[in-house]
Amino acid sequence: MSFAKKLTRPEKLMCVLFLFTLPLINPWVRGDGVGYYAYARSILIQHNLDFRSDWEHANQSFRMAKLDDEGQVKPQEYTRTGHVNNHFAMGSTLLWMPFLIVAHLGVVIYDLAGGHMPADGFSLPYFTAMALGSATCAFLGLLMAFRIARNYFGESWAFLATLGIWFASPLPVYMYFNPSYSHASSIFTVSLFIFYWDRTRENRSGRQWIGLGLCGGLMIDVYYPNAIFMLCPLIESLAMYWSSLREKPWNRFAFWRLFGFDAGFCAGVAIGFLPSMVVHKILFGSILSVGDYQDQPWNWSAPWRWNVLFSSDHGLLTWTPILCLAIIGLLMWTKADRRVAACLLACALAYYYLIASYPLWDGLSSFGSRFFLSVTPIFVFGLAAFFSGCALVWNAPRAIVISARILVSLLIAWNLLFMFQWGTHMIPVRGQISFSDMARAQFTTAPVQMKNTLLKYLTHRKAMMNQIENIDIQQIREQQRQERLEHPNVP
After folding, report:
1. How confident is the model at residue 334, as a pLDDT?
2. How far apart are CA 124 and CA 115, in angstroms?
3. Distance CA 338, CA 344 (A)
4. Quick check: helix, strand or coil at residue 251?
5. What's the pLDDT score for residue 392?
6. Termini Cα distance of the chain
7. Which portions of the chain are predicted below pLDDT 70?
8. Virtual torsion, Cα 355, 361, 363, 368, nearest 10 deg
9. Which end of the chain offers a freer environment for a tag, N or C, measured as fewer CB atoms within 10 Å?
10. pLDDT at 300
């Protein structure tokens, strides 16, 4: 597992593309990102877990729900330990911290030299460092996803699949536009976990089992549902136990050796998840508490299962059509290792069931189904498998390559225009949208307005973000007004 090896041509192209897109990073903390970033700022600057300043400095739509009319944190926002209720995972802080420490040192040195830059974690250098950290994490996750897919489906298909998932999914929104969310960090940790699991699975040593557990603990630190991906080593271990029990005579030593490895893996997970357990103990009084998430009315009969895929309210496949090909590809892994295929497909299905059981499965104001960004490395696999499978059954190599490239290019163009409509509030960011209106704008108003808006984004970003925030607030207030009219007796 070394990135020190000489980069291949596709990897070099990915690096160039990443550097070319870095000016798109948006040093902006808003929405859920306030909670994620609050851990990093409070620990680095205040050396505690007091989030009151973060709530008070948050964007207005976030403050509307958390602060009273006098600008103070509402009493119900405090936990039984007297801390502000920050139920968001703290793992992104661990990945952002190297970037933020450099920014903090730069600000301190600048101020010592006579400058005037607040070293409070709210100024531009800190937000820029966080945004750069998120973009870097997402890119490294994509690079690892590419390398895994390359091992099974060839370099050209893995490269095309990586580009497709990179730019034809919700990923750009949370890699560049909303970097304070945890999704970019989640892509990195899940990709790292699957990458390391796949590379070591043939003859994994005891140390490597512990290392895999550490990767798993970090993965859950960043985003709790990522625990689903530990199904990979679980399925692998169960298959190995079964094989051991079927041996005649029974190999007792191999059985208990594997048990020791699994114990080492669990210990690694516990150590990796230790930062979160410490935080949970301080904030909520229990190392296993996850705040509001455990109080949500989860419905394990999954009543939303079809809506999650096909709803106009951020449905996974309706908003991100390239994933239709990736999902088909997940069922076409005939040439891949069957155990690898089974493990990754099981993870994708289990993750889908988990999100389908969550009452806020639509992600509220997300672009597309952002919760599924954790599945990015598996989607890269699936898309590469789809193209590779088509090439096997279509006896026209050049034609399939050209067709695949054109298809991915069209899907990327569609997604970028769709993101533009969402980002500029041409379509509602919450609730259902009209696909007919959206599709019409894709070919008429969106392409015309996109050029000028992109220039404004690059040159007058702060003013543009304030404008978007004001529109969002207006829409929230209008939605609240409609709800009061429809339900006048509800307080």
Report:
1. 61
2. 14
3. 10
4. coil
5. 86
6. 56
7. 1-5, 292-295, 333-336, 480, 483-491
8. 80
9. C
10. 87
Rounded distance between C-alpha atoms, residue 453 and residue 439, angstroms: 19
Q: Which two tokens stand for residue 26?
A: 């948006």
Instruction: Provide the residue type at 91 as one letter.
Output: G
Nearest Cα to 28, choosing from 173, 233, 152? 173
Residue type for position 108: V
Nearest to 134 by CA among 194, 176, 102: 176
The predicted-structure confidence for 404-459, as pLDDT tens digits, reads as follows: 999 999 999 999 999 999 999 999 998 999 999 999 999 999 999 998 888 888 88
| Per-residue tokens: 25 | 């990073």
Q: Which residue has the tokens 């079809």?
A: 306
Q: How far apart are CA 194 and CA 189, in angstroms?
A: 9
Please give the full DSSP string across 341-403, using - where no structure is assigned: HHHHHHHHHHHHHHHHTSTTTT-TT-SS-GGGGGGHHHHHHHHHHHHHHHHHHSS-HHHHHHH
Give dist(CA 183, CA 36) in Å, integer: 11
Q: Which amino acid is at 270?
A: A
CA distance linking residue 414 with residue 443, whole number of Å: 10
**344 is written with which tokens?**
């990754």
**Rounded to whole angstroms, how far apart are CA atoms 461 and 457?**
5
Q: Which residues contact 173 (CB under 8 A, 6 or more apart)?
A: 367, 368, 370, 419, 422, 423
User: Across the strands, what pairs with 283?
Assistant: none
pTM of this structure: 0.94
